[in-house]
Amino acid sequence: MQVKILGSAAGGGFPQWNCACANCQAVRSGRFAGKSRLQTQVAISADGASWFLLGASPDLRCQIESSPELQPRGGSRSSPIEGVVLASSDLDHVLGLLLLREMHPFLVWGTESVLSTLRCQNTMFTMLNRVADQVRWNQIRSGESFGLKLINGESIGMTCESRAVSERLPAYANRATAADAVLGLVLTATSGKKLGFFPQIASLTTELKTLFASLDCLLLDGTFWSEDELTRLQGTGQSAREMGHLPVGGENGTLQQLAGLTRPKKMYIHINNTNPMLNEAGPEFRAVRDAGWNLADEGCQFTL
Ligand SMILES: [Zn+2]
Predict the structure, then answer these.
(1) Helix count and strand count (H, E) for the chain
(2) CA 165 to ligand 1 center in whole angstroms
(3) How far is the CA of 24 from the centre of ligand 1 (A)?
(4) What's the 159 CA to ligand 1 centre distance in angstroms?
């Protein structure tokens, strides 16, 4: 399985258009020991020819334009992108679908609550089904495994299994919660190697820890460093855990709770612009590296 990181920021990106936090100001000034980041996007492929997206970020157009693998290879219209697996209906995870509305066929996989939130509550998504041969939607269930396939129905030998990790639906949905609102995805390559994509986890259960220990690569929720990161900056709002994100640092943060996790390659993704670990000259970044983790960087590509 080829894995390519196309973006690693949380919703809003880094810098975020209306944010003047220390990180955003520093990165705009060009005097920041770290990188600007597009919103989280990962692409995977079994053969390097056909590609699948994990989510569809609002930055997808420029992420495709900066990745030759994802660009058309001939004919008047074509794309190596065969499908999109959705882990949630969060806007920073689905808005990119609307950027793929040019009458092109591709597959989308998502749970009942994710597909109904998009298709029944938001008429804009009907743009993806203006003609018969356009997007084909596939419903998945958390806990069940399914095979990724091409638009022509051909199997690629790669499977995906999902785990429900949060019941929280986005604020624009017409209900607050659903059992299958947010998933973690585990992709198994033809080689048997496993990639975990968990950009949002509200808590770390024993079951999740056991699952993580069986992976070859883990892309984990790196949204916030601390519980009160956003409330301190804004003076109001919800804590990290209340927003469905277990922080990286501090007591019972993921760094501490996963200190014994040695098997997989470990990378934080979905990093909010306020997170101090973005500053590569700071102690938080050092703590992350010392614990054997990396920040997922755009353009990073590896094979499992
Ligand atoms: Zn900021």
Answers:
(1) 8, 14
(2) 26
(3) 4
(4) 37
Q: Which residues surround ligand 1, an ion (CB under 5 A)?
A: 19, 21, 24, 273
CA–CA separation, 163 and 146 (whole Å): 13
* 8 A C-beta contact, residue 270 and residue 9: yes
Going by C-alpha positions, the residue among 99, 29, 34 that lies closest to residue 298 is: 34
Residue 50 Cα to ligand 1 middle (Å) = 36
The answer to whether 159 and 186 have CB atoms below 8 angstroms apart is no
Q: Tell me how far the alpha carbon of residue 276 lies from the centroid of ligand 1, in angstroms.
A: 10
Output the CA 6–ligand 1 centroid distance in Å: 20
Describe the strand order of the beta sheet including 145-149 as a list of residue ranges.
145-149, 155-168, 177-188, 194-198, 217-221, 265-269, 293-295
d(CA 263, CA 244): 26
Closest CA to 220 of 257, 180, 266, 287: 266
- Tens digits of pLDDT across the chain (304 residues): 999 999 999 999 999 999 999 999 999 999 999 999 999 999 999 999 999 999 999 999 999 999 999 999 988 899 999 999 999 999 999 999 999 999 999 999 999 999 999 999 999 999 999 999 999 999 999 999 999 999 999 999 999 999 999 999 999 999 999 999 999 999 999 999 999 999 999 999 999 999 999 999 999 999 999 999 999 988 888 999 999 999 999 999 999 999 999 999 999 999 999 999 999 999 999 999 999 999 999 999 999 9
The stretches of 66-123 forming alpha helices (DSSP H) are: 91-94, 112-121
Yes or no: say if 235 and 214 are a contact pair by the CB < 8 Å rule.
Answer: no
Which of helix, strand or coil describes residue 125? helix
Element (DSSP H or E) covering residue 256? helix 254-257
